[in-house]
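Lab meeting prep.
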Amino acid sequence: MSELNVPGRVLVPRNPFPHNTYWLNAGIVEAWQKTWCFARVGRGNCMIFRLEMDAAGQVHSPHPLFGLSDPHLKAEDPRAIYDPLRDRIVLYYADILGPGHCAIFRAEIDQAGKVHGREQLRYLDDGQGVRVVQRAFAVDEQKNWAPFIADGRELCIYHHAPWTILERTSEGMRLAHKGPSISWDYGEIRGGAPPVKVGDVFYSIFHSARFDRDPDTGKESKVYYAGCLAFTDDFGLAAITPEPILAGNVAEGNWPWTAPGIGVAVSACFPCGAIVRGENLLVSYGWLDQEVRLAEIPIAELRERMVEPEPVALGARRRIVKHDA
């Protein structure tokens, strides 16, 4: 399987940082008549930079966002949206609070690049899906929330099994929708890029991962895949790509820097951003945990490959699209 599995092209922006600096898992957003890139810079000790992106996909003017994280924490995996009511970019990102505890934070970025209102977002499903939580959750991994704006509401994809949408309110995060589970043959669906709306449908680029073995060498790697999910204004599932549109591969990968004893390489293809450019979807993603890449994909090609998902009971974790290969 190749990196880009649909017609389109891959762009590799020049690294604007000093030689051998890792920059990865970038989000992109349009605001103030510019395209902005928010990239994770560094591996173990990392922070988020804001950069400007030109029409060719090249970036410049890196600006560190110091206000996102305390000195002893890590800020990573930014996902950016523009809120026209606040006239600010809203950034969702992950922060490592300690072993086994990754939390979601939110901040607003103004046109000058100043950080405002950093806060930790918390949500606990009490079984009824109606509780608003203001206290810290137990040690857990809270990652990969994908925010978006719809009808003036700030929402996010919280989970795919079951399909769960949250809304940010003045009182905290609350459940906006819960529906059938989503899964496919390439591992558990998680996070991805903030959904973008085309016509009356939202397109959500998600990622997953599974362990694959190279048939020639026998080498096993944790390989990341990306697909596309479409949903409607009422959050109903409309369509999904049964095959990956982007993928890592077992022949390319590297060893994790956080778990050196895991004994397996990781081939990461990690989307964090998407915008509409003409007839194309421009997707930003981290490649092999070391650089930012862009995929320019015709929206018509995505539509051509999508199929209607099968009904799945709430909370179920079985496939909704079968893989014939």
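Slide two material, second protein:
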Amino acid sequence: MLTGGNTAKKLYHHWFVSQPWDHRKIRYYFGDERCVLPEHQESNFGMVRKTLFPEGIPDNSKVMRMEGELSDRETAAKNYERMLPNSLDILLLSVGPDGHIASLFPYNHALNEETRLVVPVEVTKTPLKRLTITSPVIRSAKSVFLFAIGEEKGRILAKVLDKPDDIASLPVCKVICSTWLLDSDAYSLLK
């Protein structure tokens, strides 16, 4: 499952250049999507298409995109829920400057969702309307990798280590036991 963000852009471009595997053997999913057209500059799918697949998505590849552009976001969420496997092999997440992961933002109702796998949300960062995976998807993933680049993200992770149960204000606490991939700036702020 792919994540959005600037760190992911660099990673996906690296994967495009290095071509470490056959894309036809992987099924790609998304952890969240902004409710915009897939061509929009804020679309996670659009970013993946430009960085990982700039020459086009290879034939017979499975890129399972969230239909964020649908006006009925509830239907879009349910459609995506039906596509998800019982468990993901690899879940990539980036931490936001406010501690969000996917589109699970601080104090958002989706943090407490335990039945649905994908829900529509309205968040504090534009675009406001989004679709996001929920805790059951995160918990069932076999491997979770969290990206944090820069001092700002390092400060967030330092707070997580001080308050590991503060999921309401720091949703990234949900993945405290994941594999953290940090640069030296982020790492330098951890005790």
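Talking points for slide two:
The mean pLDDT is 97.
The longest strand covers residues 143-148.
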